[in-house]
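User: I'm putting together notes for a lab meeting next week and I want to include a structural view of one of the chains we've been expressing. I don't have a solved structure, so I'd like a prediction I can at least talk through. The sequence is below, exactly as it appears in our construct file.
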Amino acid sequence: MSSGSEVAQAERTALCDLFVRVGPEAPTLSGDWKTEDLAAHLYVRERKPFGAMGILVKRFEARTEKVMADVLASKGYLGTVEAVRNGPPALLKPLDGMINPIEFFVHHEDVRRGSGQAPARELGGEADVLWKLLPRFSKALVRGLSDIELSVRRIDNGDTVKLRSGSQPVTITGEVGEIVLYLYGRKSVARVELDGSHAATGIVSGTAMGL
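Assistant: Thanks for the context. Below is the predicted structure for the 211-residue chain, given as structure tokens.
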């Protein structure tokens, strides 16, 4: 089985290779961001903690966008990508295997599927790492749901995890990577099935998710 740090590094490297291949103007699944915006986001997230506050707190979004623009202006697109490739600063390296496998997997898929043409990947042992980490972030990911008991089920082995309690049960079933993408707000590309009442699945499909 892969470790969290191994998955984080593999996804980071693959994403940076892809950044170089597609260039700064390629579309992504991260809202209206292009690849240069996503690269700057990843750099700021790891290396500019005060500038990154807008990632989680809406009133600081303008500040974070300015810091991202300043990074691109000073380093250029390829320089920003190579800085991301070099990995987290020393202070964050002990946390790399916990905070970065899902982050870099999702953003790798943001670029892979940004054009709408890339197929889902077969993840192998990486799926087990993502599956283990997912519940740690689930409370924030599904915070917008109301009165839904939400579970996720792996299609490969049937393992099921309940992410939140409620009176209306819904189960999201799919490959691990597809479940991760769905919960991180990439619903338009995630290949999953929702099981539950019509009303309950409507709530889940219509509620914004992600960090």
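A couple of points you could mention at the meeting. The longest strand covers residues 148-154. Residues 99 and 121 are 21 Å apart (CA to CA).

User: Perfect, that's what I needed.
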